[in-house]
Amino acid sequence: MDFTIIEAGMKLDEERHYVGHTIFTLEGHKSKYEVTFFSKKGNDWDYSLNYADESGIEEEMLQADARLEEDDDLFDALLDAAMDTMEDAE
Fold first, then answer.
1. Dist. CA 61–CA 76, nearest whole Å
2. What are the CA-CA distances from residue 1 to residues 31, 54, 68, 88 (Å)?
3. Is the pLDDT of residue 15 over 80?
4. pLDDT in tens, 55-78
5. The organism sits in which domain of life (predicted)?
6. Residue 35 near residue 49 (C-beta atoms within 8 A)
7. How many Cβ atoms are within 10 Å of 79's Cβ, its own excluded?
8. Whole-angstrom distance between the N-terminal and C-terminal Cα of the chain?
9. Do the Cβ atoms of 45 and 22 come closer than 8 Å?
């Protein structure tokens, strides 16, 4: 299952924690998703997955979330896209 990154961003908040997001699509899914990332030090990441636009098919969202949990390459690609925007800005 291929994916396409649409938009990404990352910044440090007031407390110097990493806060970012990546909007992406998964092949065969009707909705766009937004994964938000958070890390206090930039090495242990929490994430949240939401629809980027309107709500879509719940089963597809559950599949997307499961894929993020299981597919380190996908997770890392989405996180790297967000991190790359921060490096460009600094």
1. 19
2. 15, 22, 12, 29
3. yes
4. 999 999 999 999 999 999 999 999
5. Bacteria
6. yes
7. 20
8. 33
9. no
DSSP string, 30-86: SSEEEEEEEESSSSS-EEEEEESSS---HHHHHHHHHHHHH-HHHHHHHHHHHHHHH
Q: In what order do the strands lie in the sheet with 3-12?
A: 3-12, 18-26, 32-39, 46-51
Domain count, the chain: 1
Give the tens place of pLDDT for each residue, 21-30. Answer: 999 999 999 9
The whole-angstrom separation of Cα 83 and Cα 65 is: 20
Domain that holds residue 81: 3-89
Residues in the chain: 90
Structure tokens at 66: 């499961």
